[in-house]
Design brief:
Length: 219
């Protein structure tokens, strides 16, 4: 948990990074989201974009309109104000196929965690996950909330290819992949739910701050 004053750093001549802490926890992330919402409601002069992360917010600006000093002052004023109320989060239910070819790493996760494979699945299903950020690849929503007893560090060596829809875990996070790609995370299931639709008005299924529950799909 972090209630320290934010640290604001220059990132080149067109951006600032507002750091609220050094690790992921709910109070720190809430402060990130509060500033993100405040900027959306009351953008400072020259504001171009805001990109939230787990414990920081990147704030971009047009250097032909303003400068870092002016933007920094505007951000400090927004940080000191009561944040606007957050939107009501949605709860998404995502079906997952477990076992066999859908779960290439399930047995290894079970062995490393000292559990039976079905206990790993049960642990994964019992949690409620929070959508913290998007990153790395289109539609990659990083979900926090993986139970402690199935938390493993990433692999030492990534696996060459895993299919889109892979449900994978590492540390306290979980992702449903959207493209075929190599990964160092542990794949314990697969979902055929469409997380990203490039042609839709809202291409991503989840909004930041939403919640996700997994259910076991009928094979």
């Amino acid at each position: 948990m972090s209630d320290r004053p934010p640290v604001i750093r220059d990132l080149g001549d067109a951006g600032l990074l507002v750091e609220f802490g050094e690790r992921l926890d709910e109070p720190t992330y809430s402060r990130v989201r509060a500033l993100d919402r405040a900027l959306a409601e009351e953008p400072c002069r020259g504001f171009t974009e805001a990109i939230p992360s787990f414990a920081s917010l990147f704030v971009g600006y047009d250097p032909l309109v303003t400068d870092g000093v002016e933007v920094r002052e505007a951000l400090l004023k927004l940080i000191d104000r009561p944040p606007p109320p957050p939107p009501d989060p949605k709860l998404h239910t995502i079906p997952v196929h477990y076992g066999g070819a859908h779960s290439p790493d399930l047995d290894m996760v079970a062995e490393k965690a000292g559990l039976a494979p079905e206990e790993v699945i049960a642990a994964h299903l019992e949690a409620t996950y929070r959508v913290y950020i998007y990153g790395f690849a289109p539609g990659y929503a990083y979900l926090g909330g993986t139970p402690e007893r199935i938390r493993l560090p990433r692999r030492d060596t990534p696996v060459r290819s895993r299919p889109a829809g892979s449900v994978m875990i590492a540390g306290g996070q979980c992702i449903v992949t959207t493209v075929d790609m190599p990964t160092g995370w542990w794949v314990i299931g697969r979902s055929f739910c469409r997380i990203i639709d490039p042609d839709a008005p809202r291409p991503f299924l989840f909004d930041l701050g939403d919640y996700v529950r997994f259910t076991r799909a009928d094979d």
